Queue: 2 jobs
Job 1
Amino acid sequence: MTSKAATAETFILERVQEDVGREMTGAEILFRCLILEGVEVLFGYPGGAVLPIYDTLYDVAIRHVLTRHEQGAVHAADGYARATGKPGVVIATSGPGATNLVTGIATAQMDSVPLIAITGNVKQQLIGTDAFQEANIVGITMPITKHNYFVRDVRDLPRIVKEAFHIATTGRPGPVLIDIPKDVSEAKAPFTYPEDVNLRGYQPTVDPHPLQVERLRQAIKGAKKPVILAGGGVIASGAHEELIRFAETARIPVITTFMGIGGFPSGHPLHLGMPGMHGTYAANMAICQCDLLIGIGARFDDRVTMGRLDAFAPHAKIVHIDIDPAEIGKNVDTYIPIVGDVKRTLAVALEGLTPADSAAWIAQLDAWKRAYPLRYRTTNGRLKPQYVIELLDELTGGEAIITTDVGQHQMWVAQFYRFKRPRSLVSSGGLGAMGFGLPAAIGAKLGCPDKPVIAVVGDGGFQMTMQELAVVKQYNIPVKVVIINNRFLGMVRQWQELFYQKRYCEVDLSVSPDYVKLAEAYGLRGLRVETPEAARAVLQEALEVDEPVVVDCVVEPEENVYPMVAPGKRLDEMVLGDEA
Amino acid sequence: MRRDEQRHTLAILVNDQPGVLARVANLFGQRGFNIESITVGPCEEPGLSRMVIVTRGDERVVEQISKQLHKLIDVIKVQRVSEFPMVERELALIKVGATPAVRTEIQGIVEPFRASVVDVGPQSLIVQVTGDPEKIDALIELLRPYGIKELTRTGVTAMMRGSVKQAVHG
């Protein structure tokens, strides 16, 4: 941040404090609350019901990014939140503006991302009349928010904003929606901001029960084949350093779930990679043969267990550490349940921790890692998608923030980019929302301007939100968009090939725009690469320039993601590759 | 899948806020839990309401229901009332076809149930009965031969007995 910006921010904060007690509109109160919450950037899209809010924004020194679709705004706010750990804030108008947020809010809910969605609504006297651009967004988003509010009285607004940020960012994080009818934005009240929140029904348990932690230490002491399954909770609680110390001290290998990627460094001798449907041989075999499985901030999702709970870690005692008590026992029976913040729990567990007797087990896992590494077949002259990801990894030293869409390219990123740090993979894991990659990259880059940010997208997902290239141009956000262009909806095609007798139904994307020309149409630089020989130089060029670039990587169209565990199969029944 | 499904009665203390009933009902729908009955009304503390929900499920399901309910910000407390000695009550209004000739006969059925006739029409009576659901079921069966024209039940409300309150609240 420049000193000028810092001065501006201080000035605003001082001004806000002077404003306490002054009568002002709901919209003016809202922005003062946002400034006091430390909000630096808003993603949004104006409309009728938020006109008073946008009119106030005209005078407020808070950055606003005008996306080209509300879905772009909410994914950008989500990307900002995932990359920085701070809550992302999105504003949309009533009706269609609000409903266009739904996919993004559900994305944030599934992956426990702190997000504040502010929507306008019609004036209260029109609520319930099917008024123009009226939608019951509180009702619609009830199942996909951690909590939501309809503001009836302007005097409630400061308390609600304060509570919303508290709820979104504490415990298991998640999205909170605040629906503000137009008359509340316009109504006046004296400005106050509460110091504390007082929510009787919301008291997350952060400190683990010491006896349970002691049981964990004892279980480790007696284990011969222990394994850690580290999920997104490690990243959400900022526990990556504690996890490294814990794993090294206890001598336990670490599997990182898709959401846990970056929570433990790739390339660490104890790292086994990702488990599940497209997981590594070593990770899946470790789950099948371990005698102690320690789930840390992971929720035993069906892409990890394959829904075969009968065959999941059949020889293991399962320990489950999670801040959300409802996750414990939801999918798998737990031998030692520990409710608590992951960072605090690991810190406590480290006191007096003795190592497991795991030398032979680690040797076995190392042998598997060597015998069955992630791999793909190269074909002369054909550009393989995995090679593109390997090049990105090499050229950025594994230090970039990578955002993705959903599908094959997402799995290849998870497999072949060696993430070293938390918050460096930004991807829609739980909901699996295509179109996430580009807007999330915009948010991530605004939150982390000093880090390279690359959106690795499929040609399918990219076409769902590619209009956000206008935002990249307008605000000159130097993200790199790498399109893994296989002219197919690749993951669906792969399933049709393997499980539906190659009956390729509605997965052909061969009629698509020329992405280089598309980039140019938006005033951006576009590059294309079609051969492995040219790939390095083109990607290098794209990464080196300090401007946004779109790279169209025309890859092998019918490449499949392997290893793969077919639906209904056990983790040790994975297929390692085609014709392998 | 375990098939040891049981009936469970939950008492849920919630903020008396608009939309709370929708949040609770939504959660049951979203997670595939069923609601056999639901009652809600003010409770001993101003600003709060108590809901009583009867549901079915095995131990894992009912534990999930309690935990997921706890995650709702407006839910203060969830008690699995049916785990303890409790009092369960429901009220039913039953409109029975009754010509003057059979009125006395129906009175005779109603009395042992300590139910009462609360309305008399030319061709029908309304019987009001209070009790646990089994008692109400039993009376309905006895009245069925006369022709039940209309039936409405409040759903169960419930409370743990005084003897266990101490133990639960510690």
Job 2
Amino acid sequence: MRLEVDITSKAYENATRERHDVLTGIRFALSSGEVGVFVGPSGCGKSTMLRILAGLDHDYQGRVSRPANARIGMVFQEPRLLPWRTVEDNVRLAAPQADEAKLSTLFTVLELTAHRGHFPTELSLGLARRVALARAFAVEPDFLILDEPLASLDDALAARLRERIATLVAQRAMITLLVTHNLDDAVRLGDRLFLLSARPARVLREVPIRTPRAARREAEITAIKAEIARRPDADRSERDAS
Amino acid sequence: MLRLLSLAVLLGTWWIAALMAGSAKLPPPPAVLATVITEAESGALFLHLGVTLARVALAFVLAMSLGSAIGYLMGRIRLANRLGDPWLILLLNLPALVVIVLAYIWAGLTEAAAIAAIAINKLPTAVVTLREGTRALDPALDEMATVFAIPRARAFRHVVLPQLAPYIAAAARSGLSLVWKIVLVAELLGRPNGVGFEIGVAFQLFDIPLLLTYSLSFAAVVLVIETLLVQPFETRVSRWRLRAA
């Protein structure tokens, strides 16, 4: 299973009929089992890109070939839970086929077992994020989309949750797409990093990380981060020359 | 407890007013109670109340279901809104009396005409309320339902309906009070039974105890339905809100 994306342009018109370019050159491919991470400054158009990839926005120029009938699991930037359904019902609504054993494992991994009967309004943001993650994994997706799942959580919690995500991603072969503005999260979770420019966004550089996620040492992570920070657009010259 | 006290004050005021105005104009509570008992014993009270309630129920259900469906469509589909809007404004501003009289002229003095006329009076307010509710639906949750490929019917039931519930409750509440008022006019003008008809008879005979008997029994029924049906329903649909910390 493979995701191939070539978005040449995406623009919208605001109320005063001004044209705003959001995306200009997003081209990449991801295979099942790979985690692609998009890193870019806030407001560069990452969420717009995800909306296109998730099939929510069809008004763009270019091509997105998603595997046919791919089940999508998505974690939006805000949890987007139904406030009138309990945690468990929120997950079950998206994943009616999930059996009890699978759900309880998932709830255990995400430390949600005690909150199954709670309503989302009773949860903290960190908990609500975890419920959104549980929902996305419960559908057993072929294509998993994570839109800043760790944003605005404190460091310790973010680190714990990042590990949980790594565990869950490793359990099943799927195309995973993570968007973040945190380089640390990107290097720890991704197999391939795509560095995005400021708006209008295009892929500046692709950084493959060959060491398996579990085997990455702190020194290596620091080195990759330093290298990216030094040359964020290393292949710009090649692109311009071609 | 406070409610009972407030009711007692109302009763006391009535009694005092009756003493001052004279029983010809305003009979005191025991006189009205006596009429209530006679009417209840003959069965007439229950017959007329029952007939009126049946009309209310039919017209209310008809107007609510039709009005909710139209309001939802107008909120969702721009074309439907543009086509429906002039009709809506016309209906909203058409006096109830005009609708009732025209319905009786065109469809005869029939049960169907009465119920249709009452429903048509209530319909536009339900449409307007539900249209507002539909416009206020959260697009973020719609997107969630789309991404997770939740089937339409399930999404409607679990994602859309709970968001519309407060609007449906509001439409039901205001609609019910509108229907209560209009049903009596419709009965007065063209039906041989029901509370409105009896009040018409009492008016022609200047029988004030009879008039009050039917008015107050009717009001009591409305009060019971409000407290036992409408309010618990409202509490139920907003249960998840109350639990918010």
